Each structure stands twice: as structure tokens, then as C-alpha cells.
Amino acid sequence: MKEKKTVYRQPTMDDIGKLCELEKNVWGEEMGANREKWESRLNIFPEGIFLAEKDSHLVGVSVLHRVRWDYPEGEFPTWQEITANGYITNHNNNGDVLYGVNMSVIFGHPGVARIFTSLAVQLKNKYMIQRGLLGVRIPSLKRYIKKKGIVESQLTPEIILSVSRKDPEVRFFCSYDNLKVIAAKQDYFPIDKDSLGWGIILEVTK
Q1: What is the dihedral of CA 10, 54, 170, 121, to 10 degrees?
Q2: Which residues make beta-bridge pairs with 97?
């Protein structure tokens, strides 16, 4: 039997129930976006949301928004700050940065994340947005420092950048020629226990 293709499309309000379930499956109750956040995102910038659907089931979602970048050189906001806690109420149609808010992919569909990343680059180029940025987790960090006997309070951006090179999720994004690591951010997503709150900031280079 021929395997069905994965379809990529923009969402509608009718998808919110499925989106909430997808987020719950990928991130759990605490970290997943709720109905109110999805309604806000869809009302504000639906063009920045991409769904992956296979056999009538959602297997992934990617969320982007545009912001005005007013931060000093070398300084980066937390996820809560740059995404207005996931509601993207700080979206600016004339923003000079396209920022990755969220990517959720059901395990077993690795190609979906790759397509999402390509779609984000296409959106940036379509509107000639000056920069593209995103923050990613370091889910192996907690296990790594425990194994190495590193005390959490001793972690520095330099140590995090070194450790992140071994993390599968960070390495996935770094496998793209047009994405590069530019910083490590403490308290990027504090409730992410596996990453100990740290995040890696990447930039689209072309």
C-alpha cells in the first residue's frame, strides 16, 4: 500500500482542537500552547503558521512572527519576552526580524522539521525581512552535566555553547548551511527542565 504524502498548509480556527492535542503530546500540559494562545496567533499572523498533516492527522506545526528588534548588539530576549508569552501580541507587520516562536513535530516524522525550516526561510525571503532568528532547546543538557559532574550554578554561556554541539536537537538545526549558532541565553525558557532553562540562539545567514 502506497504511503500517503504529508500535506503542508495554513491553519484555520477549526484546527485549534487538534493543535492543542499536538502540543500536549509533544510538550506536555505545562509547556504546550493552549487554546487562547492559538486563537491569538491565528488572529494576528496566520501566514506565519504552517501545519503538517498526514492521513487527516496533524503531525507538526511551526509558528513564526515578525518583530521590531530593539535590543543592543549581543543581547537577546527570553522566549517569553520575544513572543509575548506565546500570544505574539508584539507582532509587527513591518518588523525587521522574523522570529521562530515554536516548532512541534510528532516523533517519527523527522522530515517535517526540515520542511518547516525551509518554509521559514522562504517566508523571510518573500518579504525581504532583514534577519531571521530562533531559539532552540538543549534537551540533553541536564543529563550531560549530571554525567560529567558539572554543577548547574557553574554553567556559563561558553560552557553551554560547547555542550550544545553534542545535543541532537541543536545539531539538527546546525546541519543547515544557512543557520548558525550566535549565542547561548540563560533563562530562555525557564520551565524547560531538561534544558535547565537555557536556549541556543540561531540566525538565518541567507
Answers
A1: -30
A2: 67, 131
CA nearest to 21, candidates 7, 35, 11, 8: 35
| Same domain as 154, residue 128 | no
Separation of alpha carbons 40 and 58, rounded Å:
20
Unique residue bearing C-alpha cell 534537551:
139
CA dist 6 → 53, 109, 112, 158, 178 (Å): 6, 10, 8, 39, 24
pTM of the model: 0.92
Q: 172-192 burial, b if ≥16 CB within 10 A, otherwise e?
A: ebbeeeebebebbbeebbeeb
Residue-level pLDDT at 1: 47
pLDDT in tens, 113-149: 889 999 999 999 999 999 999 999 999 999 999 998 9
Shared domain check, 199 and 121: no
* Residue 127 DSSP SS3: coil
Residue 48 has which C-alpha cell? 506565519
By residue range, what is the domain housing residue 35? 1-135
**Sheet bearing 199-204, strands edge to edge:** 7-9, 49-54, 57-67, 97-105, 131-136, 199-204, 179-185
**Could you tell me the CA-to-CA distances from 61 to 25, 29, 32, 141, 163 in Å, in that order?**
12, 17, 12, 24, 27
Q: pLDDT at residue 2 above 60?
A: no
Amino acid at 177: D
Note whether 169 and 117 are same-domain residues.
no
